[in-house]
Amino acid sequence: MVLLISGGYGMRNTPxxxxxxxxxxxxxxxxxxxxxxxxxxxxxxxxxxxxxxxxHFNYGRRRFEVIDTPGMYSLIPLTDEEKVTRLLLGNLVxxxxxxxxxxxxxxxxxxxxxxxxxxxxxxxxxxxxxDEARDLGMxxxxxxxxxxxxxxxxTTSAVERTGLETLKQGVGNYQRTxxxxxxxxxxxxxxxxxxxxxxxxxxxxxxxxxxxxxxxxDTMMSDIARSEAAWPExxxxxxxxxxxxxxxxxASAAALRQEVTDKIISKVVKQASFKRRPTERLAGWLGKITxxxxxxxxxxxxxxxxxxxxxxxxxxxxxxxxxxxxSVFIPLINPIAEQLVGSSIPWEWAQxxxxxxxxxxxxxxxxxxxxxxxxxxxxxxxxxxxEDTGYLPRLAMLVDAVFRxxxxxxxxxxxxxxxxxxxxxxxxxxxxLESKRERLLATFLLSLAIPCSAQLGVVLALLSHNTAAxxxxxxxxxxxxxxxxxxSAKIVPxxxxxxxxxxxxxxxxxVSNVIKKAYSRMVWYLMEILPVFIVTSMVLWAGHHSGVLxxxxxxxEPVMVFxxxxxxxxxxxxLGFFRRDYGAAGLYDLxxxxxxxxxxxxIAAIAITLFVPCVAQFAVMVKERGLxxxxxxxxxxxxxxxGSAAVVHHILNLLPxxx
Length: 659
Fold this sequence. Notes:
By secondary structure, the chain is of the alpha/beta class. It contains 28 helices and nine strands. The chain has helices spanning 28-36, 80-91, 106-118, 130-135, 142-149, 164-172, 186-198, 207-215, 219-225, 231-243, 249-268, 278-289, 293-344, 348-355, 360-389, 391-403, 413-419, 423-429, 436-449, 453-463, 467-491, 511-546, 548-562, 569-576, 580-592, 598-610, 615-625, 627-654, and strands spanning 16-21, 40-44, 51-59, 62-68, 96-102, 123-128, 138-140, 153-155, 269-271. The strands form two sheets. The protein has a seven-stranded mixed beta sheet, sandwiched between helices. A two-stranded antiparallel ribbon has the order 7-9. The longest helix is centred in the middle third of the chain and has 52 residues, at 293-344. It is elongated and about 80 Å long.
């Protein structure tokens, strides 16, 4: 690959690193998908649980590696995601940094561009969503902005697919220039110069931004800069400047940078008169009513009904699962597999391991491909639509006032909503929450009171014939969610973090982007879950043939009797640990055989819903919250689940009528 020696490209084997940076909801994923096509890999950033997407593209003889980073608002990080982006920028030594911003919000987002330039990074500014800026009457002089900043400025509209090829060409032909300096004021500049002269190295960035970050009290930079021999003098300079300011140095620097931004904006942005189109007025009106409680809650109910219940529950968990499981796997694929195994493997134990009741293929692969994948696939499609329409930030604002009683803020609605599709994925998404306390609280609520779509579908099928049964189950689950959430927030030390979230306009999603998001998540999920299903099948097979499974079931039977359930339900609850919906399906079979009364169905539905998370979700809990934390939560969940079942059993016995 050709790499210009003057800070650009010359011949080398490794691809040039292109890092995408920007606030949430600015279209980074659409830009990333366009540049990289279908060849995308998702992995954890070393030492963290934050996902980083990478892909490649070629331009002429040059090859580029594109890295999509988590959203960030400033080089001073608040969340784990922002910390990872900051670490990437400091450690990766990127060849190009594309700062993607929402053009209509240029005033709010340009300060980060100035920080990136101050950091000495090779920046390309991408003004995205230009169609919405034009609709608002904004006229941005791109060439003048390019001249003022001293970096390439490229305009795009990912939805209209305009300017994207120009952006790719800009990356391919990029040549680095000497960065400009955007001075703050005399006091800050003197302090920056004083600290810079004492630094022996820039710690991944320019000495200027290193000094400025130290002045602003950035803990990441302060922790590593304390090793400097001149740290006492640096600390004295920081203290001296701090004494000259009324507020914090961070706020003062941000205000000064905003003044610089405003001067630039006044030169390059003009507001033309415009008349909003009917569709824009409608989008603005919808955006307003979706975040107001009186109108937003009914809209949320409609989204849950049509998005989760109808599309995911009935179409995904109902029609697709029924078709793939009962019309494809069981009558067609399983017999072929059994025939092939029977004719090629003479050992009965090996045949049972592969295609028996708990066989790797007949249970593991069938559950993963025919039962779970259709459910999570339809959920990921629905979730991608909600993401790209801009509804999720409004939902977060809507529920923020309620979630404060659970020690959470509105951002927690995303993993909790995702939990209605798949608890395993939802626990991983809790990493987007800001504090360790909030991640712990959200994980506990997900593991206890949020049924996945597959389990929810089976439970509703169990109770749907009796309105009173459905009502009792729904009300009790809501009571448990509220009570446990409130108590957990009181018991777990710490405070609720401040809530902030970018609020994009409501817009029609880009179909190709929705499909690509859902597809990549489905592939990732399948690769994560398939090994778990294979191991689960092997464990069940070994337990069945060794008699251990039967022994454990025998131990559990007295607990079932205590909560008012027949001993036969013990197997359903035990297998529910491996797959929660599998346990619910076992209860469904017992009900179909007439072995459970309606009262027992309510008790069983409450217990199985609150029961321990499946083994896949438990494995992710161990990964995210640690082994001790995961085990502690599971033990507490077992107590709450069977305690609840016993309470409901005794209450129903005291009622003068039977449901």
